[in-house]
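Q: Hi! First time doing this. I have a protein sequence and I read that you can turn it into a structure. Is that right? Here it is:
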Amino acid sequence: MRFLVALDTMVEGLVTAEDMASCVPLQEKIKASHGACRVAMYAPNNLAYGLSRMFRSYVETTGHHYGIFKTLDECLVWLHVTEAEESEIRRRMAEPAARSPSPALEADPTATERNQPASD
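A: Yes, that's right. Below is the predicted 3D structure, encoded as structure tokens:
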């Protein structure tokens, strides 16, 4: 499975180490049921990039593959998306409804829900 986590609208707020550590059990559960995932984190600003690196340090033992990138193009290459998938991802990211803090987009335009994982 492949995921794109777009953090381009991230705003300053309180994210604690406990918040990040609390994600580990969920990541382990996802791996147990779906196998290792490829997660590209689009973090174009310093805040998002730094928090993404901290998050990865907490979840790197889960077996998923995390890539943190400053550009969307780098994310899409790393996820090995097709041209059709790229067009759909870019379309969804341009939608106003998709622009909430820390939205997650799957790299599969056929998925019916925004947070539904894409299958490889």
